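Course assignment 3, question 2. Fill in each field.
Student: A.L.
Task: Predict the tertiary structure for the chain below.
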Amino acid sequence: MGDLVGKKILITSGPTRGPLDAVRYITNKSTGRLGVVMATQALSRGASVTFVYGKGSLTPDPEVIGAESFSRLRLLQVETVDELMEAIKEQLRRERYDAVLHSMAVLDYVPERYADEKTRSGKEEWWIRLVRTPKVVKVIKELQPETILVGFKLEVDKTRHELIEAAHRSLTNNKADLVLANDLREIEQGHHVGYMVNQAGDVEDMAEGKQEIARMLLDAVAERTRSDSG
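Answer field:
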């Protein structure tokens, strides 16, 4: 069926939200497209996939992946960073995953407080204090040191060297095995290049376009899980 048969993969995808009041929130530009491509390819290669996605994000299409593959897919929707943290902890405490691909765009800052009702629109100003969120990616290796962790690093208008350096810092700080580095400006211009950075700080591989980036990452996961089991 494929080189990921019997493997359990957790994929996080899409945006998170920070509520302001009953109807408003801050978020980011993530659509979850790459996460969907990774999940679809992983399922086609035989893996069982837990797909944790942000509210409003894209999700795998049952008609595209087929009934048999869909039976190996578990969908978990979250909205806030706190909900994401709880979902990740619950999953990693409940079962062993061979790999975690943490592509979700997690807000670094959220409103300190929010109102349960709608804030009136007649105000001339609305001052909002943002506070830092906990680093969800850090708990992954704490809870499952043996799982293969693929992180993602998005930068804006960086040189290739700066992008790779930022990815390696992220990898080191979060004890990841690999980090996929990409630049927002290139993505918005339709030139999505992903650099797969390893623990040595080297570009182990690179690919262009979401389909090829997903294939590259899953090839790396398949190779590493094969090595671990062999």
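Instructor remarks: The chain has one domain: 8-110+128-229. The first strand starts at residue 8 and ends at 13.
Grade: pending
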